[in-house]
Design goal:
about 100 residues; mainly alpha; about 60% helix
Length: about 100
């Protein structure tokens, strides 16, 4: 699991560099990072919502960057519990 998390963090930083420094299209970023174009668009939205500038602050490490963009993500050291709206949607789903 730590290797996956490390790879994810590297993709986030690479995405930021390609989007805001190199100014690549979402399609080219997707090809370069292995992300889908939809994921690239979501990263752009999340980055905008957090008002992150480019270049990123020097003291912003990959773990903090990930938490800023994905505040509800689980980390290896914590357990996730569903929020009430998620429980409501899950229990009301057909099937």
């Amino acid at each position: 699991m730590p290797a996956k998390r490390s790879a994810m963090r590297q993709k986030i930083r690479k995405f930021c560099r390609l989007k805001f420094e190199v100014q690549m299209s979402h399609e080219r970023i997707a090809a370069a990072t292995g992300l889908s174009k939809g994921a690239v668009s979501k990263y752009v939205q999340r980055r905008s919502a957090r008002n992150l500038s480019w270049p990123l602050p020097e003291d912003l490490d990959d773990a903090v960057l990930e938490r800023l963009l994905f505040p509800q993500s689980c980390s290896a050291s914590t357990s996730c519990t569903p929020t009430t709206p998620m429980c409501t949607r899950s229990s009301s789903a057909k099937g």
